[in-house]
Amino acid sequence: AQSVTQPDIHITVSEGASLELRCNYSYGATPYLFWYVQSPGQGLQLLLKYFSGDTLVQGIKGFEAEFKRSQSSFNLRKPSVHWSDAAEYFCAVGAGYNQGGKLIFGQGTELSVKP
Amino acid sequence: DARVTQTPRDKVTEMGQEVTMRCQPILGHNTVFWYRQTMMQGLELLAYFRNRAPLDDSGMPKDRFSAEMPDATLATLKIQPSEPRDSAVYFCASGLEGRVTDTQYFGPGTRLTVL
């Protein structure tokens, strides 16, 4: 069965520092991978997604993610974090064809940004 | 700017009362998802629909929860009777075509407190 693991529950970085959030997935076929962000008191919003092609994908708000099949990973990165990036980040994998667009979400990583 | 809307945004009720949460998906979207988010369990998929038909409601406690789509513009989630353990934020999300590549668009959530 598909699964997603986000090993870090909580990360704190300084404003202006680089960021990498880890995501590992388990999926038998080609995965369809997503990163969503949830700001406090709001619903989730898509940051980026990967289906095929170039393994480095660009998203909104200056985020990017790299798909590494050999490591079953899809880590999210940002070169310079802003205070407004403080939020919870969710990695997800599509449940498969004929699943109506269902996603399997990881447990989330909460990002704190210190001045 | 098309958005998923949810009502009410906040609901406080007493144990044993019926609770109804409503969701208006983005016009033209044919899939609707209901999620529950708590600190302990994280984000859980309760049920989802495609073209108003339920695809999977295995995540929902059947004895007290029910989900319906009376028409394409309205999805409802009911809890009867409510219990304190149902306290959570309930999110609705919609997707365009129910494909594995779809983005899910989340509403702002309904924060439910059962006393």
Radius of gyration of chain B: 13 Å
Largest interface, per-chain counts? A-B, 24 and 26 residues
Tell me the distance between the termini of chain A: 41 Å
- Give the overall shape of chain B: globular
The main pleated sheet of chain B reads as: 7 strands, mixed
User: Which range best describes the helical content of chain A: under 10%, 10-25%, 25-40%, 40-55%, 55-70% or over 70%?
Assistant: under 10%
Description:
In chain A, strand 7 (56-58) and strand 8 form a beta hairpin. Chain A has strands at residues 3-5, 10-14, 19-21, 24-26, 33-38, 44-50, 56-58, 64-68, 73-78, 87-94, 103-105, 109-114. Chain A contains no helices and twelve strands. Chain B has 115 residues and is mainly beta. Helices cover 0% and strands 54% of the residues of chain B. In chain B, the strands form two sheets. In chain B, strands 2, 4, 5, 6, 9, 10 and 11 form a seven-stranded mixed β-sheet that branches. A four-stranded antiparallel β-sheet of chain B has the order 1-3-8-7, with no helix packed on it. The termini of chain B are far apart. Chains A and B meet through strand 6 of A and strand 5, strand 9 and strand 10 of B.
List the defining traits of the structure above.
heterodimer; A: 115 residues; mainly beta; six-stranded mixed β-sheet; four-stranded antiparallel β-sheet; 12 strands; B: 115 residues; seven-stranded mixed β-sheet; 11 strands; globular
How do the helices and strands line up, and which of them pair or pack?
The complex is a heterodimer of chains A (115) and B (115).
Chain A (H helix, E strand, L loop, with lengths): L2 E3 L4 E5 L4 E3 L2 E3 L6 E6 L5 E7 L5 E3 L5 E5 L4 E6 L8 E8 L8 E3 L3 E6 L1
Parallel strand pairs in A: 2-12
Antiparallel strand pairs in A: 1-4, 3-9, 5-6, 5-10, 7-8, 8-9, 10-11, 10-12
Chain B lengths: L4 E3 L2 E4 L5 E6 L6 E8 L3 E9 L2 E4 L8 E7 L2 E6 L8 E8 L9 E2 L3 E5 L1
Parallel strand pairs in B: 2-11
Antiparallel strand pairs in B: 1-3, 3-8, 4-5, 4-9, 5-6, 7-8, 9-10, 9-11
